[in-house]
Model the fold of this input.
Amino acid sequence: MVSRRPAAASLTSRTNATRRTATREIIESLRHSIASGELARGERLPPETELAAHFEVSQPTVREAMRALEAMGLVEVRHGSGAYVTGDPTQFIATSLHTLLQIDHVGIIEVFEMRGALAVYSAARAVRCATDEDLDLIEQQERRLADVATESDLQHIADAAVAFQISMSAAAHNPLLLAIESVLAELLIRLQADALAQRDQTFWRERSLHFSRDRHALIASLRARDEQRAIEAMNNYLDTQRNWYTSDPTLIDARLSDPEILRVVRPLGFERLESRFR
Done:
């Protein structure tokens, strides 16, 4: 009895499954090489043709793997030049967190509470772990924020506020903490800036004055290596933020799945952290 040939749909299904398996293998292999340091940050990956020959797959399968690694923040694909190792998973963490917050309809205030808990931990850890260079950078970012706080360009103010908060987190020397805090801090600042965009310069000057006192107290506690003072200063800083933040009725009950919130969240670009400190 002659066996029937497999249906075309069956062959297509098997081909797709094989390709997906091959793509996952490439992703995992390159991810391991990047994480272990075998492929250094800034290093150019071999051309598609070489990778295809090495993994014994087609070039489209390699391109599919490169797209996934780029989404994870591990490589940057430069058209006409090739793929380069970035080794920065912040963008992947940002996308994952945004998706989680939207699916579970998490409220903005809930995000703020989580961000606050992490910030207090960062402050306490920074007392023990921050170098003099870290503290100098925090002071530099505070001065930058004070300088731009009276500008009419709200984008500059938001950028400086994000950079100050990230420099505080970086001083704790915990990469996971830094990655998560960076995402939450930028999300909250951008949402608040968008909600308060129509306020005049007097509002922003008053706001800056309120926050400036808290920032200076926080920096002084870090310089003194006083953990209890640092925790108290950070709590005061967060309380001031929360009071201003919840003063806007449009944000109190807002959730990440709301259309108006998505309008602000979608354009957010989480560049490499180093660019925030320029």
About this structure: Residues 8-35 form the longest helix (28 residues).
